[in-house]
Design goal:
Elements lengths: L4 H6 L3 H7 L36 E3 L9 E8 L4 H13 L10 H9 L13 E9 L7 E2 L1 H12 L13 E7 L4 E2 L8 E5 L10 E6 L6 H4 L22 H19 L6 E3 L30 E2 L5 E2 L1 E2 L4 E2 L4 E3 L4 E3 L7
Parallel strand pairs: 2-3, 2-5, 4-6, 5-8
Antiparallel strand pairs: 1-9, 7-8, 10-11, 12-13, 14-15
Helix pairs in contact: 3-7
Family: Belongs to the EXORDIUM family.
InterPro entries: EXORDIUM-like
Keywords: Apoplast, Secreted, Signal
């Protein structure tokens, strides 16, 4: 955090929290987007992957995460150990430069292109930090957006093994199990990020929430491993790790971590002039997973020998992860161009 940035940002009202975390402008099969399966055959964009001469990603002089990034995880609800292993490996894969290409680490290189006002790049190092488990749903099974901040407060002020407080390089990732509903989940969001309010948590900390949609809306938030009933004729693809809900979370977690790194306090990298409605680096590429992607077409993905669909390799596992905006080339970018 840069000196003096917090007071300006904290002038944003609590009300702006409910507007600033907006759904991505890219494509996802939200319930209010009724389309035909034939529309998915070709994307609306005939240019490079999501390219646009109208997008102007701009730096607004706020801090970005240039120090080694530590992801502190809060497991809220009922999580199985195999599910945790999948998600942990994804986060560890962000810095696993020796992974088979195309790799998650290669995808992160596009995020690393973003800099702060001194010219320092986003950190290459992303690692797992401490974890906190809340198996007994201490805040209930129906949460508001502000409830997520209360969860973080509970985790950092716990009497036993509290999560460490690190505003400059720590990210706080709240993951809710498939029986927990969070405000606007499945209707407008599959995850979101923001920063905590000192009035609630005691500190300004960048955080993200992502939910497991397996029971509530897999056809929306775990797409394309599940498809919604209102798109007739569309068939799901096979998930690479055998868990539709968790495999669907991977892309959302990547989306949120990339935006937290480049816009942790909502005053750094985004398109448009209004921080209350930022269009961030993953928003611009929502639904794009490969070459040719755009509109409602995912782009070219890979199929494994086992029939699973993926587009990137981790340390030992495979993942399907959306691309992010490359502000140097002005289009959505995957790992191939920089995965050298």
């Amino acid at each position: 955090m840069l000196p003096g940035s917090a007071p300006v940002l904290l002038a944003l009202t609590v009300a702006s929290l409910f507007h600033s975390i907006t759904p991505a402008i890219g494509w996802r099969p939200w319930p209010h987007h009724k389309i035909n399966a034939s529309d998915l055959a070709l994307g609306d964009s005939k240019k490079y992957e999501g390219s646009s001469e109208f997008v102007h990603m701009k730096y607004h002089m706020g801090p970005v995460l240039t120090a080694n990034i530590t992801v502190h995880t809060i497991w809220y609800g009922a999580w199985k150990n195999p599910q945790k292993r999948i998600l942990r490996e994804f986060i560890n894969s962000i810095s696993a430069v020796d992974s088979k290409r195309p790799s998650v680490a290669g995808w992160w290189k596009t995020v690393q292109l973003y800099t702060d006002q001194t010219g320092a790049n986003i950190s290459r190092a992303v690692r797992l930090g401490e974890e906190k488990n809340d198996r007994f749903y201490s805040h209930g099974k129906t949460l508001t957006r502000l409830s997520i901040q209360s969860l973080i407060k509970s985790a950092v002020t716990a009497s036993t093994r509290p999560l460490p407080i690190n505003p400059k390089s720590g990210l706080y990732l709240v993951l809710t199990s498939d029986d927990v509903y969070v405000q606007d989940f499945c209707q407008n969001v599959c995850g979101f990020h923001y920063f905590t309010f000192p009035s609630i948590v005691g500190y300004t900390l960048p955080y993200a929430w992502v939910g497991n949609s397996a029971k509530l809306c897999p056809g929306v938030c775990a797409y394309p491993f599940a498809v919604p009933d209102y798109i007739p004729g569309l068939k799901p693809v096979r998930s690479p790790n055998g868990d539709i809900g968790v495999d669907g979370m991977i892309s959302v977690i990547g989306h949120e971590i990339a935006e937290l790194a480049t816009n942790p306090l909502v005053n750094a990298w985004y398109a448009g002039g209004d921080p209350v409605f930022p269009v961030e680096i993953a928003d611009l590429c929502e639904g794009i997973y490969g070459t040719g992607g755009g509109g409602s077409y995912t782009g070219q993905m890979m199929d494994g020998a086992d029939g699973a669909t993926y587009n990137m390799n981790g340390i030992r596992r495979r993942f399907l992860l959306q691309w992010v905006w490359n502000h140097v080339l002005n289009y959505c970018s995957g790992p191939n161009a920089l995965d050298q």
